[in-house]
């Protein structure tokens, strides 16, 4: 358990085409995501679930997948992982954006509390 003086924890959640899953995970793990501090020294920790994402690229889009104006449905993975500290979380998000195939990757950062 983390003490109240420990560094803030964040959960990064993102969605990615299945074919790009391993590339994005490798990049964020190399940047420092997925590490659990404490006993065990676990690394490269993540939860992954598969589902179907959909989007319709607008007129100004330059889609990696699909065509402007057409509804696209694709098998995607939802990835959840822990990141310790705000500065590292910002770095990991930038790395994710740099390797993710989409113009605008869908992701969330959630600040975690310890109870």
TrEMBL record:
InterPro entries recorded: DUF34/NIF3_sf (IPR036069), N-reg_PII/ATP_PRibTrfase_C (IPR015867)
Q: Which Gene3D superfamilies match?
A: 3.30.70.120
Query: Where, by residue number, does the polypeptide cross the bilayer?
Result: none
Task: Write down the PANTHER family for this protein, in alphabetical order.
Answer: NGG1P INTERACTING FACTOR NIF3, PTHR41774
Report the protein name in the record: ATP phosphoribosyltransferase
Q: What organism is listed for this UniProt entry?
A: Arthrobotrys flagrans
């Amino acid at each position: 358990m983390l003490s109240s003086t420990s560094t803030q924890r964040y959960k990064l959640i993102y969605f990615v085409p299945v074919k790009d899953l391993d590339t994005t995970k490798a990049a964020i793990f190399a940047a420092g995501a997925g590490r659990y501090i404490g006993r065990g020294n676990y690394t490269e920790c993540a939860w992954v679930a598969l589902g179907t994402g959909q989007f319709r690229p607008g007129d100004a889009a330059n889609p990696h997948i699909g065509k402007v104006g057409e509804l696209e449905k694709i098998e995607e993975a939802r990835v959840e992982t822990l990141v310790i500290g705000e500065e590292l979380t910002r770095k990991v998000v930038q790395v994710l954006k740099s390797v993710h195939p989409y113009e605008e990757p869908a992701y969330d950062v959630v600040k975690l509390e310890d109870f």
